[in-house]
Design a protein that fits this description.
The protein has 7 helices and 10 strands. With 223 residues, it is of the alpha+beta class. It has a 5-stranded mixed beta sheet. The chain has a 3-stranded antiparallel beta sheet with strand order 1-4-5, with helices on one face. Helix 2 packs across helix 5. The longest helix has 20 residues. The protein is globular.
Length: 223
Amino acid sequence: MRDEKALWKEMDRFTLGSPALVCRWRLASRALPLENRHLRALGQRVVNGGLVPTELVAWAKQHIEWTLSEGAAEHPDGVLMLILDGEGRAAMTVGPYEPLALRTPSALADRARAASVEAEDTGVAPESLWLVREEGLIWGIGADERPSGAATLMADLARTVGFAVERRAGLAEALLAGEVSYDEALLVSDEHGIVPASGRAQPRAERFAEGYAKLLSSMGRRR
């Protein structure tokens, strides 16, 4: 029987075609805090007309460990990138993390709108817009859409603090058109985490961002 590790490494020797899916997952202290969430969401994504095969999800799970041990020394708090081409071939690498330079509500809505366009092809939006209104949250996702890994964390944090969550498709477009009222705005991103909008007080959004930051800092204590 052939060595399993050798089989996984053999996949890396393929030359990738045009990327059909690129996932960007934030690291912390050479670890992937939302690993299980990201992998579950990966299995719900669509490539070449079908869900990402379970074999590729297994490959990604195995390869995360190797990539972080061998490639995250230079960027311990960087971004893990997983690339799949139209034939289902995969590659993984680590690069630096660059914070968002522009965090206005409209800038965050623009990013969420672009992510929703990506989701039309891949089934999962890597970033979503969330609005705080009174003591509830409006999540920019359709009732039947699949959430990203970071979005499932945000939904769990909301339940923990007792916030009702309402899903609404087209939320980013509504904000950009001035058709929705809200108290605070935030972006939830696999790459950037929980990002409150700039330009106005965001006490509740900042509370969620602090919860995410604590998760990142806890990775260093575990190692």
